[in-house]
Structures are given as structure tokens and as C-alpha cells.
Design a protein that fits this description.
It contains 16 helices and 3 strands. By secondary structure, the protein is mainly alpha-helical. α10 (about 195-205) crosses α16 (about 315-340) and α13 (about 255-270) packs parallel to α15 (about 300-310). Keywords: Transferase. One of its GO terms (biological process) is tricarboxylic acid cycle. Pathway: Carbohydrate metabolism; tricarboxylic acid cycle.
Length: about 375
């Protein structure tokens, strides 16, 4: 029995939802570059049904999702206390996700309602922590536009709507990543949806997974606010053998296809919001890392700047990632349940060999 570190290269199951074969990202066979131009609801439908919706289906599906973007009164009451706690917002989201699984007849909650509630809860956490009033959804807006509206209090322009839909689509799924695989392990036990999502949120919180976007912006802020020369900063970090967040990917050795798309969005938003200094720093760091380390930016690198340009605090960045990825998590939970197979791998034991207990003889 061979053992691959971190299960790298190990096929741990089958899926029809998404693939990173040949370093290309596809959802149900569709290239991400083509899907990036769609509406978020279209891609959610695709992930859950492995086909794109017909026009009439999309209208009904979108209407259903948006009209479920409401939280139970009991959840809002408890959130008003929980969200103000000093813990990291991802810890608040972890507790909130678990809480959603205990309020208001959750036995009948299905993926559309669950996704809608998670997005609404994340927006509520952000607003409460900022001491701002909660915002009700607008039935005239799509799901991604409503989510951005409920986060910021501003209805997106047509241009920003296209950008934000693309951002959410690019983060919606990514094969058997750490948080998705965690959700599938829990789903394989036939646990409920909210338990699966709570576990996924816990996995996403880590800085080597979803939490990387926050670390990226910390790095950019450090450089910009201290007026440090970007190349001096990065060479010192490498010399000190510190990890440079936002670069490299276990799957994509020639560049993350999502990062190529996000780069253009980050540049456009940086210009519109007078954050060009951050984008210029990013370009210098990216050129250095490619030349000296042969590493390309990954999905977290440009997402960090995009979220900053939207007026969000860095502590909330990973929650926005979670909002997008919930669509994929739910798709995988449904698929794993259909497979009716408990995930229970073997391990390679590397501890002491045969040992025996020695009984002390009484005198």
C-alpha cells in the first residue's frame, strides 16, 4: 500500500460535477472560461443538475432562490448577539451555519432554501459587525446582485453585476478541494445538510485553503501602508523562508485559469475605486515570483483585491468565498448521498511496532 502526502494524485471518488483534469477547470463538461459569462443562478443549476437550464427553467429557479433569501426571526435575534463577538467572522459563520440547522422546521430545508439562507446569513453577519441595518432582498435583482446589495447597501451597476457574478461563478466549485471533500465525508455518513456545511466551513477557514485571500491582502497592505519596495519585501520574505500567500497551486502548474479571469476584474475595479497602487504591487510581486520561483498567482491572489475594492474588510473575505462555494458544497453533498457509500480510507501506520504491557508484580 503506497501513501501519497496530502492524498496528492490519489483518486478518492467519482464525480460528474467538476474536473481539473489536464489543468483545466470545467463544470459538468463546460469550460470555466465560457461559464464565467453566465449568471450565477445558471451555474448553480448546472452544478446541481449537470446541465444548463432552459430559459423558462432559469426564470423559475432564479425566482425561487431569491425569494428564499430570508432568515427566520429566531436566527436574526441570535445573530444580533453572536455576530458582535470578537471572534474571527469565519468562526461566527461556523456557529451560524450550525444554528441554521436548528431553527424553523429545517427537516424540510432543501438546497435552494439552504443556499439562500447561507448567503443571507453571511450578509447579515457583515452588516451587524459594521453596526449597519440589515437589508431585505430585492425581487427585481438576481441572487448574486442581491447578495452584493445586502452586503454593501448599494445596488450594483450593470458592469459591477457582470463582474460579481463572474467572481461567484469562479468560486462556486473546484472538484475535491479540502472543504468539499470534508463535506462529502460527512455526507457519506448520511448526516444532514447543515452538518455537512458546518464541517466544510471549518475546513475553508484555514489559511492554506479559503483563508489565503485574507493573508494576501495583509501582505499587500503591509507593503502599501509602510511604503516598502515590493521587490525588497518579497525577497526578504523568501530569504526568511516565509510562505508567499496567493501563489502556486497543487493542480495548476502553469497558472490558475480562474486567476487569469480575476486579474482583469481586479484591474478594472482597482481603477474605478482608486486602488491602482495595490494592483501595481500585485503585478510586481507576480512578475518576481514567476521569474524566481516559477509560481503563478492563484484564485486567492486577485480575489483579495477585488473584495477590498468592493468595500469589504479583509476579515470577511473568506466568508464571501464560503458564500460562493456553498453552491458547490451542496452539489457534492447531494451526489455523495446518491452514491450511498461511506468514505472510510485506510492509513499507513508508522508508530512503534509490537509492544506489550508489563504487569507490575506486587511485593
Amino acid at each position: 500500500m503506497s501513501c501519497a502526502k496530502g492524498l496528492a494524485g490519489v483518486v478518492a471518488g467519482q464525480t460528474k460535477i467538476s474536473s481539473t483534469d489536464n489543468q483545466r477547470l470545467v463544470y459538468a463538461g463546460y469550460p470555466i472560461e465560457e461559464l464565467a459569462q453566465k449568471k450565477f443562478e445558471e451555474v448553480v443549476f448546472l452544478l446541481w443538475n449537470t446541465r444548463l437550464p432552459e430559459p423558462a427553467e432559469l426564470i423559475t429557479f432564479s425566482h425561487d432562490l431569491v425569494n428564499k433569501m430570508v432568515l427566520p426571526a429566531e436566527t436574526i435575534r441570535l445573530l444580533s448577539y453572536i455576530a458582535r463577538e470578537p471572534q474571527h467572522p469565519m468562526s461566527i459563520l461556523r456557529t451560524t451555519t450550525s444554528l441554521l440547522g436548528t431553527t424553523n422546521d429545517v427537516e424540510h430545508d432543501e438546497p435552494p432554501k439552504i443556499l439562500a439562507k447561507i448567503l443571507t446569513a453571511i450578509a447579515a453577519i457583515v452588516r451587524i459587525r459594521d453596526d449597519k441595518p440589515l437589508i431585505d432582498f430585492d425581487p427585481a435583482l438576481g441572487m448574486a446582485d442581491n447578495f452584493l446589495y445586502m452586503l454593501t447597501g448599494k445596488k450594483p451597476t450593470a458592469e459591477l453585476s457582470v463582474m460579481f457574478n463572474t467572481v461567484m461563478i469562479l468560486h462556486a466549485d473546484h472538484e475535491f478541494n479540502a472543504s468539499t471533500f470534508t463535506a462529502r465525508v460527512v455526507a457519506s455518513t448520511f448526516s444532514d445538510y447543515y452538518s455537512c456545511l458546518t464541517a466544510a466551513v471549518c475546513a475553508l477557514k484555514g489559511p492554506l485553503h479559503g483563508g489565503a485571500n485574507e493573508r494576501v491582502f495583509e501582505m499587500l497592505s503591509d507593503i502599501v501602508e509602510n511604503k516598502t519596495a515590493p521587490l525588497v519585501f518579497i525577497s526578504e520574505q523568501i530569504q526568511a523562508k516565509r510562505k508567499i500567500m496567493g501563489f502556486g497551486h497543487r493542480v495548476y502548474k502553469h497558472g490558475d485559469p480562474r486567476a487569469f479571469i480575476l486579474k482583469d476584474i481586479a484591474e478594472a475595479l482597482a481603477e474605478k475605486t482608486n486602488n491602482q497602487v495595490y494592483f501595481k504591487v500585485q503585478q510586481q510581486l507576480a512578475a518576481y515570483m514567476l521569474k524566481h520561483k516559477q509560481l503563478h498567482p492563484n484564485v486567492d491572489y486577485y480575489t483579495a483585491l477585488i473584495y477590498h475594492c468592493l468595500g469589504l474588510k479583509k476579515e470577511t473575505f473568506t466568508m464571501i468565498f464560503a458564500a460562493c462555494r456553498t453552491a458547490g458544497w451542496l452539489a457534492h453533498v447531494m451526489e455523495q448521498r446518491e452514491q450511498k457509500c461511506l468514505i472510510r480510507p485506510n492509513s499507513e501506520y508508522v508508530g512503534p511496532k509490537i509492544q506489550h504491557c508489563v504487569t507490575q508484580q506486587s511485593r
